[in-house]
Specification:
four-stranded mixed sheet, 17% helix, 122 residues, 8 strands, alpha/beta, 2 helices, 2,3-Dihydroxybiphenyl 1,2-Dioxygenase, domain 1, single chain
């Protein structure tokens, strides 16, 4: 069996590419990479790729995907930026930010309801 090397990309399905790009680029600050026919947009950073796709794959339904988590050095500042742009965070049992022994985390939904994690190591 061949050895797996790395995660090639994480894919989120979207219904409206312009609206999704406004969120991923305008709210999260990701820089666009390759674009394939306007239906598949890549964002390359940190040795991996996050992609959004408006192609009709029947097994990919917007708002149903698990979470990718994006690393930040200033989670509290990132949270404030997101909230200042009118986005709310996913409720974590009455809290906006979670904590584990090794990190802090928060989650926001993109315009299609896909959850995007925000992560900061301690």
């Amino acid at each position: 069996m061949p050895h797996l090397k790395r995660v090639a990309f994480t894919l989120y399905p979207v219904t409206d590419m312009a609206r999704a790009r406004a969120f991923y680029e305008g709210v999260l600050g990701l820089l666009p990479g390759e674009n394939f026919g306007g239906a598949f947009q890549e964002y390359d950073f940190g040795g991996t790729t996050l992609a959004i796709d408006s192609s009709p794959f029947p097994f990919l339904q917007p708002g149903t995907q698990a979470s990718v988590s994006l690393e930040t050095d200033d989670l509290d500042g990132f949270i404030q930026t997101i909230k200042s742009q009118g986005h709310s965070l996913v409720d974590l049992g009455g809290r906006e930010k979670g904590e584990s022994p090794v990190c802090y985390m928060a989650f926001v939904r993109d315009p299609d309801g896909n959850i995007v994690g925000l992560h900061q190591c301690k």
